Amino acid sequence: MLFWIVAALMTAAVTALVLTPLLRARHSAAGRAAYDMEVYRDQLAELDRDLSRGVIDERQAQAARAEIGRRMLAVADEGEREAASGALSPGQGSRWAALALCALIPLGALAVYIPTGHPDLPAQPFASRETAPGGGPPGEVMQAIAKLEQHLREEPGDLQGWLLIAQTYTRMGRFEDSAEAYRNAVGVSQGKDTGILSSYAEAMTAANQGVVPEEGVRTFDAVLQADPKDARARYYLALARAQAGDLRGALDRWAALAAESPADAPWLATVRQRITDTAGQLGVDVATVMPQPLPPAQAQAAPGPRTAPGPTREQMAGAADMTAEQRDAMIRSMVDGLANRLKDDPNDADGWLRLGRAYRVLGEQDKATEALASGVKAAPGRVDVLTAYADALIASGGDQDAPPAPAVTVLRDVLKIQPDNPQALYFVGLDAARAANTAEASQLWGRLLIQLQPGSPEHAEVQSLLERLKQGG
């Protein structure tokens, strides 16, 4: 009964919206013309005020008066034509159309609903309504999932099947189902694959509203026992510390992870943000706890014959045993050699990119910015060079929440080349929010949000920004 009451009210509302324009008396031609004339008189008065203030000159004023006069004559002619046509009130045809629509709208709605509708059916979760990439019906997606589920019931030892359906559940936001699928994958792989273990623990965390559960902590611990360098396990174990109230322990672990991560690691920005937030909660100067990352992973490989080779594996292994001073001296010698070579080959964009990143590792932000600016000149259309340059400008600005204007300009150029670039969407969105341009910020962050994994820290951060935007915060 409640359904039919709501349906009747909605139908009445739609009918009212359709009928209102038909039943409302139209303005008379004389009234409309009088209103328009008053507007143009105000424009003429404003024109005289602008002329007296010196905003415009006499020539501009005459041209504007002529245009306003032309429009006034056109309004007068139009008013006379409409008055002559007698179109001053709703005609009998409009009244009959209104009466017909008043009957047809509810009858038509019933005719469509009765053969297909079922008000007693339960609600369908939004996640299960995901449409197919070509705009295909949702049923195709659900049928494919059902077939895969049936296959896994018949073949529970299919590891790839469990991984596929776990990833599908994650994209649909069905985190509990995703965690259960990963649990089965762990069983099939006998817990020997650390990547599957990490994914399982991460899915459990997502299913637990972002809080790392006890089983997740144990699983991440098992991952670290097998691979002490696993970044995902280290991140979430630090998060578990913070959620347990050990902010200092979490800060130390995130700082250690940042110090041992390459400068271009995809997780580094999130870790740095955690360090910044946690240091603020503890009342610690973030500059004293924010470490410099390792040289970029990309810079450690020789990308081409024109670019000076990076350190070899043996050199990197040896660097691990060096003192901080020895390691800095080794890096300095390589950086100086690269800088000297680029003086003779200024069109080597890859070289400038490596040099800029190296200067950032050494903490020489101004030199890094200059090197990356040279890289942009050498390759103005390369997104990786542009984003590295913008990142250097942001670092020099010293405020991650308010990117400097030059960095925003560069990142807007990035969006022209790569409209869904995550870094550009994030920081240009911050700039738009700072300028109170909530529509642009919401649009940019909305495009970023759909690229992020639901349940991930990045997804949660962008979701929080959007919510604050809606609340006016």
Automatic annotation (TrEMBL):
Which intervals carry biased composition (Low complexity)? 297-313
Q: Where in the cell is it found?
A: Cell envelope
Instruction: Return the Pfam families for the record.
Output: TPR_CcmH_CycH (PF23914)
Q: Where is the signal peptide?
A: none
- TM spans, by residue? none
InterPro entries in the record: C-type_cytochrome_biogenesis, Cyt_c_biogenesis_CcmI, TPR-like_helical_dom_sf, TPR_CcmH_CycH, TPR_rpt
Q: Where is this region: Disordered?
A: 294-314
Q: Which UniProt keywords apply?
A: Cytochrome c-type biogenesis, Repeat, TPR repeat
Q: Where are the TPR repeats?
A: 349-382
Chief subcellular site?
other
* Domain annotation Cytochrome c-type biogenesis protein H TPR: ranges: 148-265, 331-458
Which SMART domains does UniProt cross-reference here? TPR
Its name, as the record gives it, is C-type cytochrome biogenesis protein CcmI
- Annotated organism of origin: Skermanella cutis
